[in-house]
Write a structure and sequence with these properties.
Elements lengths: L11 H16 L4 H17 L4 H14 L4 H13 L3 H14 L4 H12 L4 H14 L4 H13 L3 H14 L3 H14 L23 E2 L4 H12 L9 E4 L4 E5 L10 H21 L7 E6 L3 E6 L15
Parallel strand pairs: 1-2, 3-4
Antiparallel strand pairs: 2-3, 4-5
Helix pairs in contact: 1-2, 2-3, 3-4, 4-5, 5-6, 6-7, 6-8, 7-8, 8-9, 9-10, 11-12
Length: 316
């Protein structure tokens, strides 16, 4: 599933299966394997519906009380914290894992991302570089290093990492996601496969329509229109109140972008929208839904989330 997808209601048989695993684990309170089996199942369910993460954490707590150094339990706990945006907790757990297995490139890369989301870009970049030094073919570390470099303004170096990652990628899905990152880094919208050209043979997006009437709304419209990647894809902006809107982005897979790329966009846009809120003395809760094909809300902006997350520390 793409990151930040809407929660999916799981079938009744899945809930029944999870209940059976829970009963088996509760009947054997000291059986590590029974509790790990329950934790795994709840964790996988949580990847589709995050409400299951609560139960997964409870099962993992039980596993860790029985086997404090169980690396699988530590990794699952770290992943849940990371997916839930609890980056300091994820960082702590990734470090705990690496005390046991210090060479795992995936965990070392994930640790770098947990650090990056806390605004420590230079530290994260060094972590990715260290992973690549010992694992030159590890694709995700190169992708993440490219993202960190791009965020620091080192665009040529970032593109070199993206292109090397694309050369190394073997999985078609991974190749497609790297292609999307490269398109975003080059300031062009990712092109979906087999996209139909518009009338007249042009792939250009149709002119944006909007019902904006206030200075704040028009300012937000301008932010979208001037964005080099999202701007050309905006079809319609519908304001449903002074501070709430739906931005129609057909054929733009926002929810399939890597978390760091998507969240950097959100951080930048939310900071600019917050500035407009202050400038125009706007009251009320801001919610701007980014809507994809099938009337699906891919993500939302609120003038708060992730502001400052990618800020560079002052020199010296």
């Amino acid at each position: 599933m793409p990151p930040d997808h809407p929660s999916i209601e799981l079938p009744a048989e899945v809930s029944s299966f999870l209940d059976e695993l829970a009963k088996a684990a509760e009947a054997a309170p000291d059986d590590i394997e029974a509790w790990k089996k329950l934790a795994r199942a709840r964790y996988r369910a949580g990847m589709l519906n995050r409400s299951y993460y609560t139960g997964a954490r409870a099962a993992l707590d039980r596993v860790r009380s029985l086997a404090p150094k169980d690396t699988e339990a530590i990794r699952m706990s770290a992943n849940i914290a990371y997916d839930s945006g609890e980056f300091p907790e994820a960082e702590k757990l990734f470090h705990e894992y690496l005390e046991i297995d210090p060479k795992d490139p995936g965990v070392r890369t994930d640790l770098g991302s947990a650090v990056l989301f806390q605004g420590r870009t230079d530290e994260a970049r060094q972590m990715y570089t260290d992973v690549i030094a010992s694992n030159p073919d590890f694709v995700q570390a190169r992708v993440n290093l490219g993202i960190a470099l791009h965020g620091s303004g080192q665009r040529d170096e970032a593109m070199a990492e993206f292109k090397r990652a694309r050369e190394l990628a073997k999985d078609p899905e991974q190749q497609e996601r790297i292609d999307q990152i490269i398109a975003a880094a080059e300031g062009r919208a990712p092109q979906p496969e087999a996209s139909a050209p518009a009338e007249g043979g042009s792939n250009a997006a149709a002119a944006t329509t909007t019902n904006a009437s206030t200075a704040f709304q028009k300012g937000v419209d301008k932010l979208f229109a001037e964005h080099p990647i999202v701007g050309p894809r905006v079809k319609d902006i519908e304001w449903t109140s002074e501070t709430t809107a739906r931005v129609d982005l057909p054929a733009f897979p926002m929810d399939q972008m890597p978390p760091v790329v998507r969240n950097k966009f959100k951080s930048t846009m939310n900071e600019k929208i917050a500035a407009l809120v202050s400038e125009q003395h706007v009251a009320g809760t801001v919610r701007i839904d980014l809507v994809g094909d099938g009337d699906r809300v891919m993500d939302s902006l609120d003038a708060k989330e992730l502001i400052g997350a990618f800020a560079q520390p002052p020199e010296g």
